[in-house]
From TrEMBL:
InterPro entries: GntR_C (IPR011711), TF_FadR/GntR_C (IPR008920), Tscrpt_reg_HTH_GntR (IPR000524), WH-like_DNA-bd_sf (IPR036388), WH_DNA-bd_sf (IPR036390). The lineage of its organism: Bacteria, Pseudomonadati, Pseudomonadota, Alphaproteobacteria, Hyphomicrobiales. This is Regulatory protein, gntR family. It comes from the Bacteria. It comes from Bauldia litoralis. Pfam families: FCD, GntR. Residues 11-79 form the HTH gntR-type domain. GO terms for molecular function: DNA binding; DNA-binding transcription factor activity. SMART domains: FCD (SM00895), HTH_GNTR (SM00345). The keyword Transcription applies. PROSITE patterns: HTH_GNTR (PS50949). Keywords: DNA-binding, Transcription, Transcription regulation.
Amino acid sequence: MTVVDRPGAPVSLSSHLTREVMSLILEQGLRPGDRLPSVKDLAERFSVATPTMREALRMLQMAGNLDIRHGSGIYVSRAEPRLMLTNPYAGTLSTGTILNLLQARLLIEPAVAELAAIQANEKHLDDLGDLLAEAETHLSGHDTDDAVLGVVNMRFHRAIAEGSANSVLADVVFSLTEVHIKEQMAVLDLYNNRRRDHEQHKLIFDALRAGDPSDARRLMRDHLEDVISVIETKLAAAGKTERT
């Protein structure tokens, strides 16, 4: 599989990992039906967190290169490279698309959080806790890496979708944030309050851990509405609001 990006479009860590995994498959001469190492082993091999590795494998599964069988393992389903665009519409950044992305997420993610509060198991909750701890480490440091925090932010939202135990919803959230990664990074830049964002994530996590679906839904809705409000205000002040 080859990941192709439009000029100026950022390449996510998970997209980069898809190249590495496909290179591994080709270098080792693996064929359809052959088994890959576990997610944990692959994460260690490429020096990334397990949730990030899982996202890359999901991308390859969606592209038809891998078959991930729960309780069995990860298998090659297509060994030859396959073209995949991280964002076929990437080009000039559109404020209209930024707002459309947020409105789409507002429609979907509160319901996803509600379901995750019911369905998430200890592994899902542990992954979410680890992501919050990773974000806190970066926020508490002297050199806050916005790019790293942006990746952790998206991994947190995607991990909640994974915890919903609904693979279609997980794919929808993953696709929204991956295909529109350029707009999503612009959202983080415009919102520009990493600590506030993190504290809201912690409240959502507390509701998930408490198994409170109504609270999880409300907090996710409040979180996204806050982001939308801040960004709409900033875009309006800059005279950049577009008709959607």
